Amino acid sequence: MKVKCILGLVVLVAFSAWAEEEVVKALTASERIERANRDVVRSPDEPYVEDDVAYDSEAERNADPCTSYGCMWPRSGNGKVYIAYVISSVYSSREVSIIERGLQSFHDVSCLRFVRRSDQRDYLNIQSLNGCYSYIGRRGNGQDLSLQRSGCVYHDTVQHEVLHALGFHHEQKRSDRDQYIRVLLENVTPGMEHNFDTVNTLNQGTTYDYGSVMHYSKYAFSKNNQPTLVAIPDPTVEFGRATEMSAKDIIRLNRLYNC
Predict the structure, then answer these.
(1) Distance of CA 160 to the CA centre of its chain
(2) Domain range holding 8?
(3) Is 183 within the bounds of a domain?
(4) Is residue 226 located within the same domain as residue 118?
(5) For 39-72, how does the pLDDT look when each residue is reduced to its tens digit (9 = 90+)?
(6) Do β-strands 112-116 and 142-147 pair in parallel, antiparallel, or remain unpaired?
(7) How many C-beta atoms lie closer than 10 Å to residue 257's C-beta?
(8) Torsion of CA 143, 136, 148, 213, to 10 degrees
(9) What is the CATH number of the domain that holds 217?
């Protein structure tokens, strides 16, 4: 009887883990990131994080550091942009495969090339820290990019965080956002309003992209299950549901890096 109870408990735990994984898989990238970062407690040596964007301090988030210094990864003499990376040993072989597939997806559509670090000074240090987050642009030396094993290791999430590291903000933070999206602050969780501020983005000569992998979902940071973002002038337009980089994401990437 005792053995049956133990076996039953093992099956129940395994089923619960499987069910949780299926729920997370069904979420959009922005929903998954918000879920992974919700109520997370970060260690003292982790950076200040707003949503999934890392800063060296809380004061820094009031500026746009990526435009105040050379935040792009440099081009080499052959026209390629090589970005070194390290992947933590805590990931399983399956998780490493997902992360590397996300990195290599940039090779097919741009002049960017992600390479395993040897002795490069600047590199992405991909770790399973607390939640999903990345700095905006190149910071110098080893910079953390967190893909927590539970909730963040998915193709679209990898692309999303890497695009931050390449210098891109969330789409709904674009300087022209208010022409395309109305923010319903009355539905936003108190204290989370700053996630809907706009920044002085370049936009690379592209129009607003509802299909960007960098776009929030309709219910991002909602306190009451009501929309926090609504498309205008047509409120029926869907957004925040990308499963990979959009055509405009790729165009902006190539224009920024002169590919």
Answers:
(1) 4
(2) 2-28
(3) yes
(4) no
(5) 788 888 888 887 888 877 665 555 455 655 668 8
(6) unpaired
(7) 19
(8) -140
(9) 3.40.390.10
